[in-house]
Amino acid sequence: DMEQPHVIVLFGATGDLAKRKLLPGLLRLFEAGLLKDSCIVGTSLEEIDTDTFVKIARDACEEFGKGDVTDARWAPFAEMLSYVSQGAGPHALAEAVHVSEAVLARHGEEIGRLHYLSVPPKAALDVIRQLDEAGLVERSRIIMEKPFGTDLDSAKRLNARVHEVFDESQVFRIDHFLGKEAAQNILAFRFANGLFEPIWNRNFIDHVQIDVPETLGLEGRTAFYEGTGAYRDMVVTHLMQVLAFMAMEPPTSLAPDPISDEKLKVFRSMRPIEPHNVVRGQYNGYRGKAAVAEDSDTETFVALKVEIDNWRWAGVPFFLRTGKKLAEGARIISIAFKEPPLTMFPAGSNVGRQGPDHLTFDLADQSRMSLSFYGKKPGPGMKLEKLSMQFATHETSSSASVLEAYERLIHDAMRGDHTLFTTAAGIETLWEKSIPLLNDPPPVRGYAPGSWGPNAIHQLIAPHAWRLPF
Ligand code: BG6
Q: Do the record's keywords include NADP (predicted)?
């Protein structure tokens, strides 16, 4: 299956995600020998020809990919590319796919089709109809981008419509945070070691923070974002998926169904997200942007407390935060352990303990895990200092072998491996738990660009404190 030739149809081929991640990612997969004998058919609403698309793709790889895109490097990849405008209709699309298949047919193997829907939730339905009309459902897998709907009703409608055309086994709902090395390392740490298993619960863990501040603004994505906001863009998607890896019970095996079952149980155990557990923020100046309503209520920042009512996690809050135009960029999952039962090292000066010890997963591309704890400061007397043990994946493996999240997941989808993808049931449960918040969102609070968000985040987490900035 791994070597099966593929026609990859990229919907939204000239969009932000395609330029930033998908086209450079496909180039890398190709160069890593993981995309042999394939063709890529780009399609979008833009009326352009193949030459123009190839130029757009090259510029994107130059700007967002790794290394210079020389003629020699580009030529073999460019040969795989073609373009058809979505406006040309389903028959033109079918024809473009068939032309590519004819090229690949000389290999004599069955040709797979991978439709990548890099389009907003509303447009996904149109694309699915088009694929149906074009007769491009057979031998196909589709990758769908988040957000999957914008609330429970729309997610259900979308999933129902998808299932009218595609079998669930053909559907890959991508959440690229699960493709990050450190996210998968949560599973490795938890289930490959005897050390962490006994402490992974309410008896030893005080609270968990999943913190993804971004310095980035909205670049060219304002129109999409205005109708989405930070909660739908990041929380019901990436942050909750990562939370599920952190919180789930050991699955019966690391196969797709057992993992999805355990994640679903976490989502079901979550208390509904109530407005009083959420801080919504909007950076000062957002309302002045083109495509933003003068009185826009879209949040560019959100922080919340999530409670999981099961035996493992009862009483252990999970604090989530993410937002645009914040002071620093980071993507950490930080587990704070309980304080020792008695204090022998009085707090104050630099003698005592200050705050909990932590296990931290850094989801940055250069992923890093660290365990920080207290030790004796060398020298006279008994003073403590914070020590840290670090494991940096990029220092122990060659960078060539590390795939970026999207690269890894596209490759998994081509092989039919659902392990790191999300399910309709899981996503619908998350929307269901979001109903109180979505029905009655607290007003957005302003925050200064370059800050850590509105002041109310400190009340939200008290008596704990945000781990960042380090
Ligand atoms: C995307 C969101 O899914 O993830 C963006 O739409 C966000 O708003 C991005 O910036 C963050 O991804 P990464 O891989 O850069 O952490």
A: yes
Question: What separation in angstroms does the CA of 346 have from each of 204, 352, 357?
Answer: 21, 5, 16
Structural tokens at position 131: 């694929």
Measured in degrees and rounded to the nearest 5, phi and psi for residue 429 equal -65, -40
Reported in sequence order, the residue ranges of 5-77 that DSSP labels E, i.e. its strands, are 6-11, 38-43
The string of pLDDT tens digits covering residues 387-410 is: 999 988 767 666 666 789 999 999
How far from each other are the two terminal CA atoms of the chain, in whole angstroms?
45
Q: How far apart are CA 372 and CA 350, in angstroms?
A: 16
- pTM value > 0.80: yes
Adjacent-strand bridge partners of 345: none
Question: Taking Cα atoms as reference points, which of 66, 426, 466, 25 lies closest to residue 247?
Answer: 426
Q: What is the ipTM metric for this complex?
A: 0.98
Neighbours of 106 (CB within 10 A): 9
Q: Which one of 233, 239, 283, 402 would you pick to mutate in the ligand 1 pocket, going by the greatest count of ligand atoms within 8 A of its CB?
A: 233
Q: Three-state DSSP class for 427?
A: helix
Q: To which H or E segment does residue 59 belong?
A: helix 50-64
Q: What six digits make up the tokens of 167?
A: 């079998």
Active site residue 238: yes
Inter-CA distances, 353 with 37, 303, 408, Å = 59, 27, 41
The SS3 of residue 205 is strand
Residue 130 has which token pair?
């088009």
Annotate 317-370 with three-state secondary structure.
CEEEEEECCECCCCCEEEEEECCCCCCCCCCCCCCCCCCCCEEEEECCCCCEEE
The residue behind tokens 């995600």 is: 17
CB-neighbour burial class of residue 302 (10 A; exposed 0-12, middle 13-18, buried 19+): buried
Distance, CA of 195 to CA of 193 (rounded, Å): 5
> Which backbone phi and psi does 239 adopt, to 5 degrees?
-65, -40
> Ligand 1 mean position to 262 CA, how many Å?
25
pLDDT tens for each residue of 186-234: 999 999 999 999 999 999 999 999 999 999 999 888 988 999 999 999 9
State the pairing for strand pair 171-173/140-144.
Answer: parallel
